[in-house]
Each structure stands twice: as structure tokens, then as C-alpha cells.
Amino acid sequence: MITHYLFPAIVEHNTLSGRYIVVFPDLPDLICQGETPEDAFHQAELSLGMHLYHMEKAKKQIPEASDSANWPKREGAEIIMLEADTLMVRQDVDKKFVPKCIMIPRWLKELGEENDVNFLEILRVGIMDELGIPD
């Protein structure tokens, strides 16, 4: 499962609004802005992560990042590279715990209870380990 992405974007200063606009040619539905270049970069990074996270949840195809070397851009605009980790977004956004019924042998349940085993924690850690997700 891919969760780490790197996408190029174009950032340019809008002289009418005074804001910095960031567009992602590979993701035409994603446009963001900021008061300063740093703010625009920060907003773009957050927006990219959320946008890709929602694409994953909707089971939409996430495009490959294209080569930005030949992209047309206006004078003063620059191409920046932005990273997004949808696993981090997922962990940040979707913190709700859900019930999951499991079946284990009675003897194992009893032995675990006698030894104060935290079944839920073991299950959570085990699934994360199986998926290669750091705790």
C-alpha cells in the first residue's frame, strides 16, 4: 500500500489579491493559497495530504506525478515539490475506534485474563506490525 507521495506544484504571486497561489497540474481539483510563500507552501502540503487521503477513501486512482520540466509557467512562478503521507493524515483524521469481534479459544481468554493481558492493545499492535506501520 503506497502512502507516501511526492508531487510537483506551481506557486505564483497573484498581484490582484497579494496572495500566493499553488496549483497541482497532476491534480486539477486541488488549488490552495497563502499570505506568504511559506504559508502557501504549508497550506499546499496540508491540502495535498488531505486531497490524496480522500482520493484513497473514495478508491479513486491517484495519478503518477508527471515530469514538471516542460510545464508552462508564468513569469515569476516557480515549481516546488511537495510531500504527503496519507498514513499520517489517516492517523490524524480518523481516530475513531470501532468494535471488532474476534474469536479465541476459551483457555487462551482465561489465561490472558489471569495474567492481565490487554487483548485490544495486542491486537492493535499486531495489526500495525503486520501492515508495517510504526507505532
From TrEMBL:
It holds the Pfam family HicB_lk_antitox. Gene3D superfamilies: 3.30.160.250. This is HicB-like antitoxin of toxin-antitoxin system domain-containing protein. Residues 7-85 form the HicB-like antitoxin of toxin-antitoxin system domain.
